[in-house]
Amino acid sequence: MKVTFRISLVLMVLLRAPAGAADFGVNATNYDGGAWSPYVVGAGIGVLSWLTFYFADKMIGVSSFYATLAGFIGKLFARRHTESLPYFQNHQPTADWAFIFVTCTIIGGFIAAWTGGEFRNEWLHPMWRDRFGENSLALRMVVGFVGGVFMAFGARLAGGCTSGHGISGTLQLNAGSWLTVACMFLGGIGTAMLLYTVL
User: What is the pLDDT of residue 28?
Assistant: First the structure.
């Protein structure tokens, strides 16, 4: 336990360095976006983690949702092929706890954006539009799709996603989760710098 705690502290210190270096002109302490306090929301996620452990004996995680959704779609259009796959023979796609959790997360995100005054009906984010122009919807769709594929592959490879490792794993002081989160930050910062400063 002491070794895990020490590794966690070292990783927290290491994460601050690249995060501070990736400055795109936004001051996080003076950011006027959104009406919901990130501190209150962060505390709420922590309490939600306790409740899910206590009542459902589950940890917060969403990566299995995409496999379940793929199973639903596969059974709809290619039932025999989907049922022949080893994964779906062992993991029948059902509207289980994780599926309901992610569905409610999407609904909750909509409510948060609506009540926080951040709901926007637009195809391109202003930051993306400023960097790549008005006629870059196809580029954003391609980048988003490719990025999503890499994220899904990485989540399955790492045995968890940003929620599974970043929330549930780190609050249990899991050294593997802290290492995964460090890699997430490094990869995210590197990708953002590549997209918005190099390309």
Answer: 46
Copy the structure tokens of residue 184.
Answer: 């997430």
Q: How far lies 109's CA from each of 10, 41, 82, 105, 118, in Å? A: 33, 12, 31, 6, 10
Place of tokens 């790549």: 132
What gap in Å lies between CA 162 and CA 178, rounded to an integer? Answer: 11
Task: Quote the CA–CA distance of 18 and 14 in Å, as a whole number.
Answer: 8
Burial of 54 (C-beta count, 10 Å sphere; 0-12/13-18/19+): exposed
Give the end-to-end CA distance of the chain in Å, rounded to a whole number: 44
DSSP type of residue 121: -
Rounded Cα gap, residues 180 and 7, in angstroms? 12
Other Cβ atoms within 10 Å of 97 Cβ, number: 13
Residues of the chain with pLDDT under 50: 1-26, 28, 31
Contact predicate 154/66, CB 8 Å: no
The Cα 22–Cα 196 span in angstroms is 11
Predicted local confidence at residue 16, as pLDDT: 45
